[in-house]
Amino acid sequence: MDVNGRNAVVTGAAGGIGAALSSALTARGAHVLLADIDPAVAQTAEGLDQMHWTGDVASAEGVADLLDTARSQLGEVDLYFANAGIGGASGLGDDEDWDTVLDVNLRAHIRAAQRLIPDWTARGAGYFVATASAAGLLTQIGSAGYSVTKHAALAFAEWLSVTYGDEGVRVSVLAPMGVNTKILWGDPDNPKTGDALAAQKAVSEAGSVLDPEDVARMVLDAVEQEEFLILPHPEVLDMYRMKGSDYDRWLTGMRRYQAKLRKIAQGE
Predict the structure, then answer these.
(1) Is the pLDDT of residue 49 over 90?
(2) Where are the beta strands (DSSP E) in 132-259?
(3) What's the N-to-C CA distance of the chain in angstroms?
(4) List of domains in the chain
(5) DSSP β-bridge partners for residue 169
(6) DSSP state of 169
(7) Quick one: how many helices (H) and strands (E) in the chain?
(8) For 52-56, what is the mean pLDDT?
């Protein structure tokens, strides 16, 4: 797909990967609606001379309003980047933590697809891009909610591709390791500790930490080639193959790695 002249919606677009995707889309000639719960999205959009929407895609009402706004401002939506995401609570979390991370990292994708797919299949064209994580192929030490929802986001993207690929709907899923964003580093005024710090180090020390702009370029290159799995860190594929070739060995190795990271997080 050539994104030039296409209408795109990007969620989580106030900063990080979402802002970088919006900038890259703009540079390639797309019309973009930047969406985020953070009011800073207005400034990001203004800098790109694009439109914005401020609201919460974690709710069905928010997704409906976003897409109604997109259609009124852009026309038909050609590409949807389900990029908004959160790290979630450390460890197992409680019911409220699970409701939040499921709504943001998974149900937001489902709710958008429920409203987009009927139009796309009728037109015979449309592109859904989901931001998951290498955690969706592997796991995330320290956070059950993040790991589970990223696995689920990838599984949902697979299902969309299998189910609607022959009707003109294209799907890609982004699965990076470390990217230089707030979701990795957190709040500098409130440093991570314990399992949260171990989770951060599991990502930041596993490979290079890429800039969002480089990731965005890789995403759009993959979209133009209509590639499903986007791996900015190629080593993730080797890790995934290792996991599948001997699951028990992989689990044992991950437990050892977790123990090491917890010692580092505790200053040992």
Answers:
(1) yes
(2) 169-174, 229-230
(3) 51
(4) 7-265 (3.40.50.720)
(5) 126
(6) E
(7) 11, 7
(8) 97
